[in-house]
Fold this sequence. Notes:
Helices cover 27% and strands 28% of the residues. The protein is of the alpha+beta class.
Amino acid sequence: MTQAPYVGRALPRREDERVLRGAAQYVDDIELDGMAHAAFARSPHASAGVGAVHVPPELPDGVLAVITPADLSGRVKRYPKVAMDGMEISDDQHPILPEGEVRYVGQPVAGVIAESRALAEDFAEEIEVEYEPREAVVDARASGDALVRWSHSGGDVDGAFGRAAHIVSGRYGMARVACVPMEARGCVVRDDPSSGVLTVWSSSQETHRPLAQLSHILDRAAETIRVIVPDVGGAFGTKGNPPSEVVVAAIAAMDLGRPVKWTEDRLENLQTTQQGRGMEADVEMALDADGRILGVRANILADLGAYLWPSTHIPPHTAAMLMGGCYDVPAVAVEITGARTNKVPTGPYRGAGRPEGNYFVERTVDDAARALGIDAVDLRRRNLIRSFPYPSALGLKYDSGDYERCLELALEAVEPERRSDDRVVVGTGVALYVERSGGVFESADVTVERDGRVVVRSSTRPHGQGHDTAFAQIAADRLGVAIEDVELRFGDSAEAPAGIGTFGSRSLTMGGSAVAVAVDEIAEKARAIANGRDMSLAEIAAAEPLHARSKFESEITMSSGAHAAVVEIDRRTGALRILRYAAVDDPGTIVNPLLVHGQVVGGVAQGIGQCLTEEVVYDETGQLRSASLLDYGLPTSAEMPPMRVEEVESPSPLNPLGAKGAGEGGATGSLAAIANAVADALGGRHLDPPFTPEKLWRALR
């Protein structure tokens, strides 16, 4: 009997059973003999000069060491500077510990290593630091320093605006948000002088990027560092760089000859982990008399914070490159200024520029429709890209899509509604989106054991996405074996093949394709060995070794979709309720519909949180006012609306799976759809999220 294909089936995640049984192992679960613990003295100032760091000459019992900035002099470098074509990037890379100054509240100033976490935390409070407080800059528009500058254009922008019948402009902003994974950051570091290997267990998104960065910072050969990523309780973009605290733990482990553990608490996580969003844009859109978009100009101001992490400049660049959206716009010009402020640096957070760029475009399209007296959906239809591949004005190649189909399905599913009475106002919003995913390369290493087990080692590392299931579906189908016979291995740089990592909706497109290429090679070798004989895979592997390693390279793919929302605002209280929500996403060929559904719903939930309550708030002195989950409002299941989730499959021609990305569409489409619905309910008045009751109550008056 022929086995039904696994690809396309909504299989539950295989990894869930282990997690639900409590058998998962996170960084803080790791216990090693002789392990010490690290805690940190942190800056109470948003901006200050740093003088002497006073450490008592005799440490109390149980306190093993204090590591100060002076102790790191000559031993570590700053984080690497990652260049990008045409971008001016300052040399303000994040230091490991302060180099004469601190630039944000919570910046680590000294590390304390002790026999227990409690002892380390207690003694960290005893460290005395000489500070010279300075005035903090918290408003990006008031900043005189740019960490990043970049501009790019394509097409005849001046000509487009010169012949336009209508020019619509607006300023659209997106507040900073905290990323709040369930598991905060952490590490365990052990140095083994006998082997010369420094082993770092880290809560990270992958193995190879942290390894490369640690090699740079410690000025140590990469082959002498081993990075192991155990189970990870969420990341959402925040665990791509090893934190400064990991470097200090590594130095301590080398100096003391003992393993060192550091795990941050929620206050540290909210105060010092890179934050997301924090951009605003001045956008102009030129249209002809029939509502055809002729050109777009945008100036994006990004509040990048105090320093640059290696990926801090990526979200504003991504936002800028997507300023044409799903529309056939022949001319686009964008400019980015990344301002330095006295806040924790920003970086990728689910979407990493895609939600911001899409929000800027889709809010402008809605405002243009209102200014021209054209229905917002009709204006979109007039301008949709319909022919692929499509070269965007800014140089992206859109590989495939069916934007009109996504739009029609979203409208049908959401059941648009507009009404107003003495109690409530109701509005409907729609937003299309396009997002880049994939690119560069990923690798896979596949071996068939003599008992027929297929062992797949991937360069990517899951942290909730379901790689173990989806990759096994791919391998099982292409080799004709049961999915139970496929074993996935991730997260150990000593055995994982080279790769880039898990971020940017790229894992299935790149990592899954690498698996497909490797198992196809295995299948070809097996057929050659069998030479027409009826042999099982186990019999073939017993006769001759079966092994293949692949490196899959590709251009980026472009996922897309349309989201729609119906919202209700209470006139008396300003409370916002999402009555209905529809998400239609096109991630290319779908390997596992259940995993795609989960990714979309999770992304929408994060978008809803940002629309309703989430906002990082600093006061005028740079003190964080949203430093706990009492003050930083996360959404709960009570805020989730009735939701219709549907998919369109436009296979990509750029990889053997036909896959694109699915991880960030929910976060990308939801912000603009809900914002457009709120504007519709308010009769066209623009507000930026979060749409708090007070903000909406005042707008209604």
